[in-house]
Amino acid sequence: MAGTSDPHASAFSAAELEFLAEDEIIEIVPNLRMDALNFISGDFGPFRPQIPTQAPLWLAVALKKRGKCTIRTPEWMSVDKLTQVLEAERDSDKFQPLPFHYVQISRLLFDHAQGDIPDTYMVRSLIEDIKDVRFHKIGKGLESISGEGTFALKLLMPSVMLIGFSIAANSLKNLSAMEANIVRPFVTRALETFYKLSSSDMIQETDHAPNRQQTANRGPRRQLKDR
Amino acid sequence: MKIRTMKLRETHAAADDSVCSILWASDLGHIVTASSSDNAICIHDASAPSNAPKFLRNHREGVTALALSPNSTCLASGSLDHSVKLYKFPGGDFETNITRFTLPIRAVAFNKSGTILAAAGDDEGIKLVNTIDGTIARVLKGHKGSVTSLAFDPKSEYLTSLDSNGTVIYWELQSGSTLHVLKAIAPNNGTDVSVMNILAWSPDGELLAVPGLKNNVVLYDRDTAEKLFSLSGDHLQPICFLSWSPNGKYIATSGLDKQILIWDVDKKQDIERQKFSECITCMVWKPEGNALAVIDVKGKYGVWESVVPSTMKSPTEDIPGLYFKNSNGLLLFDEEEEPCASGNLSDLNEDSHDDFEPLRRKRSRKHSSYDDEMEDVNDELETVSKVETRKKAFYGHKENLSGRSGSRNMMVTAGTKMQEPFQPGATPAQPGKRHFLCYNMLGSITTMEHEGYSHIETDFHDTSSGPRVSAMTDYFGFTMASLNENGSVFANPCKGDKNMSTLMYRPFSSWANNSEWSMRFEGEEVRAIALGSGWVAAITNLNSLRIFTEGGLQRYILSLDGPAVTAAGYKDELAVVTHISPPLPTNEQILEFRVFNISHGSQPLRGLLPLTPGSNLTWFGFSEEGQLSSFDSKGILRVFTSQFGGTWLPLFSASKIKKSEENYWVAGLNASKLFCIVCKSPETFPQSTPKPVLTLLDLSFPLAASDLGADNLENEFMMNNMHLSRIQRSIEEREASGLDCTLLDDEAFTVETSLDRCILRLIASCCNSDKHVRATELVKLLSLEKSSRAAIKLVTALKQPNLAERFNNILEEKLLSDKKENIALPDSKSNCNGSVKPEVASTKFFTAEINRAAETAVASPVHIFPSTSNTRARNAEEPTKDKNGKSEESKTMTPGRTIDLKATGKGNANGVHNAGEATKATKVDQLSSSRPSNPFAKSSSHQGSSSLFDSLKKTKKTDIKGKV
User: Which stretches are tagged as biased composition: Basic and acidic residues (chain B) (predicted)?
Assistant: First the structure.
């Protein structure tokens, strides 16, 4: 899976994100009788016809493809709930709580279980709208960070920059996987750059050798974290 | 006649002539005005006209029509902006856009009870809107021009409407059909929207007043729509508005000649007139008093006081008593929907006790019509109660909610009726919709009537393994069905002479062609059907139970004791419910159930079927394990048990689940869960599309709120006890028939251990709340000896030494009595052949007991260990299986079991050694080798036991901590 993404870009590919989202639990109504399934992630089932049960999304989709179940739309995907979220999203700067993988989950459901979603068209357009609003917010957030960043650069005070990021991080609460993925390359690269700048600052003040070692050490550790 | 002038107050500024409307609320305090050139509705305070009025500016364009519900709580307005809005009155809070049109609205009107709002305008149809939920009850089409006036007949039978071409149409409200069309009887205004045609019913509903073509008012008959007489006089131009006085004695008319005339209807003469500077477009009588509110085309309004000369009767005298009758008769059902609907009626009734002097003709007619009406009411009540009983079968606990005064008398009539027969898992027929004939845990049979014949579909929940059944066109009109894995059976009641009652069986798979069969019943009607393995049963109205084989052979015909209620089949067993007597006056159905075994030709069970007082049986059937179960309309599930000589246990109560907005529609159950479809109130049964989803609810006893505060534990305790007794009974049955019951023994042991676990936790909570007597009682109920020991440890840990002592005594007593029993009744099953050596036992008690026992034991050739040795000895055969148990608790239990095993094993081994049978010894060794400790080492087994108690103690402690 890791092989599909560019090892240097610290972002997941769309396929990888979908793969991760497929582990989310969703409610299905099977129309077959099957004993409980024991997986590493846990036990699911037993499956009895017309009795709702929990299953990971990948299993739900696999069963759905074979016509063995109907998927119950999660509560947050109802028109009422989404309308509320969209309004709140438009009104405030904060991100509204939605499932971490909401984009992928809804996408998978639209692709495979369109018939099981009431008001499909409405739900689809609401989710699109919410996505747009949130992406727009992220764009604006990044702009403000870069604004503060340039200000910080001018003052040669990376600590101000870090404060800017921490503020941004607070406002980025409830960020979903897809959105985090968009921010990730920019933030990591920016941090890296600022780190370099600040360390070159330090270089002038102190001697070179230990600092270089530090930067050398820094690289791989960070990469490890990303994985 | 004198001519006066009146000063009018400006309220709606209007440049051009516009249609203005005015209302006088029956609370007397408020006058409502509106104008078609102004988007505001004004609510004026009639008693203080100088106060600034309240403006409601919800419409985007001019308001053309106003209507106030009869109880003055709801104001409706129609506007040029195509919408009809509802407001609270007198507050004026906007409530809802009740309906919309594609063209401007010209008229709105409420019916007598305020439940229906009629609205019409330039659009083609008149919409009848249900004011409670905003649904469109009916659209009446027939007018060519735009409808300018609507009037409900005060008796709520007709609606009359008048269009701008002068055509009057009488509509029958019940059917929505046109009764009479009177073409071109009123002035034709063409497209002139500034002048409205108007029509109005007299308050007693006998006369309809319509402006005539000769500047007069024509009065038409209520039923025949014949022209009765006309009022003609001093109007020089056509009449544009008219209004009846509250008692129906006078009519006020306004003409395009800018004057208002007051007419005495009986004398057919104008008695008063008033000239105005502008044409009056709307006027209204004061509900109680001699005054008339008017509004002109310029939007100026005023109140004309003492309209009727004081020498004549007041316009509010002798208000027809019709209101009275209506409020008690026809309005009964409306009242139930809207309890406040009768608010103003009582005010009006105050005047109606006086003498009552209408025309002779009218009076006689009124009497006859009143009698008719009473008959209608009676008919209606009867039909309602019939419907009620049929519906009741599907009511959850709705009755609890609707136990208001309005519906009381209906419920009484329904209560004395015997419950109609029903099929478990069927929903009532709904026109135009698919409904269930049968829904069970296996699948469903649905039907929908379409143009005289029905379309029946059979679906299995498990689409992968169930047989595929093709849809069927049904020419018989089946209303009953039953389904199992082998086939389905259908039946229809007889409809008249031509359509005989038919029973049809449809197997799903058969080796022979054409294995469908049907039976016809001449002069007999099928009431309930059931299906089992290899048989079909039908109960008819002659109270005979007919049993057919799968192939269609008529096998048995039995006579039942009473009219059938329902029937259910499970494998060989057929359960039938019948009435045995009319219901008690306290509204309790007296039902009897009988269970037949078809293949044996026997009747294993028979008894009365208990129901919650005031409820009906709504579901009846077998659980997945074959337990007879019933569900009533109060939401109580009962399961038959053989305990106490065969009784019913209430195992689920919908009211115990604190969700009043949900109704449960039962589909089936198993030993621990109820499968049902949850319906949001007031729905009591599911729709067939979308496919309903089953919800699992835990079975639980409706326990009283205990001072212990451990309801869950108490419930678990009772459930476990019930399961245990059920298993023990089936063990007995199997043993009696000489079958192997190892599996059941296993099950019994697991239930026993979980029961003990539950009792231990109960003991802990009893100790915590100082219920020592209860704790002692609980200890006596422990079945496994080591659980008793655990209980002693537990109370010691909880620092209750006196309890510990008591428990100790109980345990000793128990062991002693067990021993005596065992010695008296030696168990042939035990494979322990040798005598038991006293040193084998690991604890003090054991040693003491067995020492004593050994003396007698030597004499007896067979001896086993005390207490529930059956299960333990068997358990010893599978220690490894038990050791693989997952949960911590079962781990703690396992060592305990192995200790017992050790003891038995040792006994075995010793005995075996003595007998010199080496093979058995190795076997025991193998068994013992699954344990880490040496089975023959006494000390290690001691350790083992103490560590067991430690671990038990630990778990108990954590339990207790968790609870605290």
Answer: 874-891, 951-964
